[in-house]
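Quick one: structure tokens for this chain, please?
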Amino acid sequence: MSQISEFASESLQHSPCGILALDDNRQISWVNPALEQLLGLPGTELIGKSQETLAHPAYTGLFGDPGVMQLIGDSQRDERWLQCSQVQTNDTQAPGKTLKFFQDVTELMQLRQENERLRQQVEELTITDSLTGLANRRALTNSLNAQVTRSRRYQNPLSLVALELVDDSRPAAEIEPETILTASRFLRDRLRWVDVIGRWDHNQFFIILPETEEAHGLELLNNIVSEFPASNPDMATSLHLQFGLAEWQKGCDSRKLMQLAADAMQQIELTE
């Protein structure tokens, strides 16, 4: 048994994995050279220390539960991510009651952070809805902000349409993606080149009508709605388009204009 313990002790001493031992009082009783190198601290600054008495507060995570921990150094360059595991031992030859093993996973965590940063960048650059190819929320919001700014500066007319695809035979969430796609193509083909249409939610769209007063916008939308779905015999007769329209007024920002258009659509629903 003593030979096995001696062999285990040598293995811990020369292990490439950082290891420390905690005694019954949760004080560090031993560290191996790999942990000293990993932390950049001599063992003399660790041995005999508890979580409360350790002179380096950035390293108090060494006493934490197993899992991934972040050790904050003096600068971002000194940050370390360590994967910790631990075992309890009753071996009287062991250097402590609890052995904690540390592997440096800094490169892995930095890679994950970089991947997340790139994913967010791609998401921010994406301006089209994945199903319909129309403007997505971000692109629609940016376009509306630009048009409102232009109207505020030059007093140009501007109208906004809130529009829903409604199926009287089922809830909105159950409208098939193929139906949403067909409706989006129908709308896009009948709008003017200057108009901007975007998909806001599953069956909801917004249409920006620059240089358009409310009366002209209503005429355009009434013509479009009256053709749907008669123009496509494959569409269910229970489908129809429902819209609300609002014209920009002085003092109205993008958010308020969207709310006015949505409220106008709700009022139409209530009167039907």
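The mean pLDDT is 88.
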